[in-house]
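Case study: TIGAR bisphosphatase.
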Amino acid sequence: GQGVDEPLSATGFRQADAAGVFLSNVKFTHVFSSDLLRAKQTAAAILGKNRFCKDLEIKYDARLRERKYGVAEGRPLADLKAMAKDAGEQCPSFTPSGGETLDEVRERVRDFFEFLCQLAVELEQKGHSKPGVPGRSSGTSGEQFVFPWMNHCSEAEPSSEGSGSSTVLDANILVVSHGAYMRNWIGYFVSDLNCTLPPNLSKSQLSSVSPNTGVSHFIIELENRSLLNPKIMCVCLNQDSHL
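Here is what the predicted structure looks like once written out:
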């Protein structure tokens, strides 16, 4: 939750370093992180291993915080499950006293995602010549856009042929957040925005919480600079081969 702002454990730092090595050849244009300490440390570890973005500014945003669990924060998960059982509810949808409802979390998700879309539109309007904003067709080294999970996941990387796909990468954004929050984000993408999912993805995989430093990759296309009806494709979900 939010109330106990603990740092990463030794295992958490090892996982964050592993994620950094895994993503070391991906050139990010922007990095956003939850303002909770464990997410800040994870984002810093990832950038610290990156070949291209070590000095990129990390922007911290409270909208990326984990779901607030009220009276259950700082207590074992078993206590939360017991509270839900006593209330006659299922644990994922149960809201402890003082906690956030799933709808409240989703509103934070929606607000932040629309902010990212607006950012992408503004970048496109400024053109692709701005330093530090790479493009797929701008002549930059292809290794800067090596997505290491592509060998493990759907072959969903966009191409320059057919369907009007853009050949320019306006923004390649790293977002560091938390498990329950990200599960809600994915639910928003699927339920509200009709996100295309990788083939053979099971319902249990779709509803599961990502492992720590799990990587999910989404391609967002905004047609004609419009923030309405973004086209969203999930390339991979909760990828953990680096662990």
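For the exam, be able to explain this: Strands lie at 30-33, 58-60, 173-176, 215-221, 231-239.
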